[in-house]
What does this fold into?
Amino acid sequence: MTRFLLMAIAVALIGNTALAQDAPQQAPAAGQPAGTGPQTDPLDPVPARQRGLQLGGDAPVTSGTAFNPAISVILDATYAKFSGEVDEPAGFDFGHGGHGHGGHGHGIGEGLSLREAEITFTGTVDPYFDMIVMAAVSESSIELEEAFITTRALPAGLQVKAGKFLSDVGYINRQHLHDWFFVDQPWMRELMFGEEGLSEVGVQLSWLAPFESYTRFGVEVLEGRSEGIAAYLGNSDHQIVTVLPDGDNAPVRNRWRADKGFSETTGPRLFTGFVKWAPDLGFDHAMQLGAFGGHSRAWQNEEAHSSGRLETWDGDGSFGGFDVVYKYGSGGLMGHGNFVFQAEYVYRELDVEYQSRQFTDFSTLALTGPVLDPDQRDQKWIQDAMYAQAVYGFAPRWNAGLRVDAAGLTTNRAYDTGTDGQGRRGMRHDEDTSWRYSTQMTYAPTEFSRLRAQVSYVDIDDHGHSHGGVWQLMLQFNMSLGVHGAHAF
It folds into this structure.
C-alpha cells in the first residue's frame, strides 16, 4: 500500500509539472511593457525575420524542447525578360552612372538568377536581450544584412536596438525581399535610401507611449555610410594610368594621381526620427500611419570618366516623408478575401558643392569650363518619390496586386544656389516624372513556399527625352526552411 501511494504522488507531481511547462505564456496587456519590451507592431505582430522561438525565463533548454538559436534559410530565385534597357530616372543619375549595384544587390538582371540565400539566426540571449544575425549569400559574395540586439526588460515602454539593422523610417524599409508583395522593391526605397534600403550600424531608442492606441516614437543615431541619403565616400586619390611615348617614341607607362578633395566626416553622420500610430479599427481591420525624417551630415558622390575627368558632389542631405498601411483580414481560408493597401512618400534635399576637374599634369586636377565660369558650383538637388500598392486574396492560396511607382512626382530639379564672379547664375533643370506600373499574381502552396509572376511597364523620363516604355516580365520562387521563414497567408 505504501509503495502504491508513493507511486501515485510521484505521477501527480510529474503531471502537474508537465502541464505547467506546456501552459501558454500570457501576453502582456496592450501598453504594458514590463518584462517583454514594447508592444509589437499591430500590422506585423510577428515579422518573418523574427519568428525564432523566444526562450526567456528560467525554462531549461534541451534537445527535447528547442534549439537556441533558431535557424532558418530562405532561398530566392528569379527569371526576367525585358523589352529594352531601363536607365535611372532623370534627376537621380547625377553623373549619368547611376547609384551602382554592388554586393549581393536586389537588382534583377535578365535571364535566370539566384538572388540570394538568406540565413538567419535568432533567439533570446537571456531575460534581458534578444539577438538576430542575418546573412545573405549570393553566387559571388556573402554579406551581413543585419546583426543586432534588442532589449527585453527596460522600464516605461522603452526599448534599445543596437548593431547593424534596417532603419524603422517608413514601412517597407525594414522589410527584406521575402516580405515584399512584389518581385522587386518600390523605387522610393531604392532611389532614396539605396538598393539595400537604409541599413546602417547604429543605435535606436524607441518608446511605446502609454496610450489606448498603439503609438511608438523612435530616434536613431547611425554611422551614415550606405547608399542613398547617407552616401559617404571619404577622401582618397583619383588616379588613371596611361601609356605615352617618350622622346624616342618608346611607350612609357604613366600614373596620374591627385587628391579628390572630399571632406572627411567622422561618424555618426546620420540621424533619423519616426512616429507610428495605429488607431483601433476593430478585430478585422488594422491601420498604421507614420511620419519620419532625418539629416545626414555627409552626402558624397562621384563620376569618373574614361577621359580622366572627375565629377564630384560633396555636401549634406535631409529627408522627410509619411506612410500609410491598411490591412483587412477576412477570416477566409488561406488568405481568401484578405486585402492590404500601403503607400509611402519621401522628399529629399541635397545641398552639395559640385566640381568637374581634369588632370593638367600627373598630380594636379584643375577645374574644367571657361575661366570666367569654371565648373565649381554650390548646388541644391530637390527630389521626391512615392509608391502605392494594393493586394487582394482572390482565392485560397492566391493573391494579386497592383503597384504604381513615381520618381520626381511633384519636384525633381537641381539648381545653383549662388552666382559666379560675373553675377551669372549657373544651370537649373527641371525633370518630368518617371513612372512604373506593375501587376503581380502569387500562388503560395504552403506558408513556406511562394511562386510569383510580375509584369511591369516602365516609362522613364530621360532629361526630357522619350524613348518609349519598357515592358518587364519577372518570375520568382521563394522557399524557406526552419522556424523563421513562414510566410503569412
Q: What stands out?
A: The domain at 31-482 is CATH 2.40.160.10 (Porin). The two ends are 57 Å apart (CA to CA).
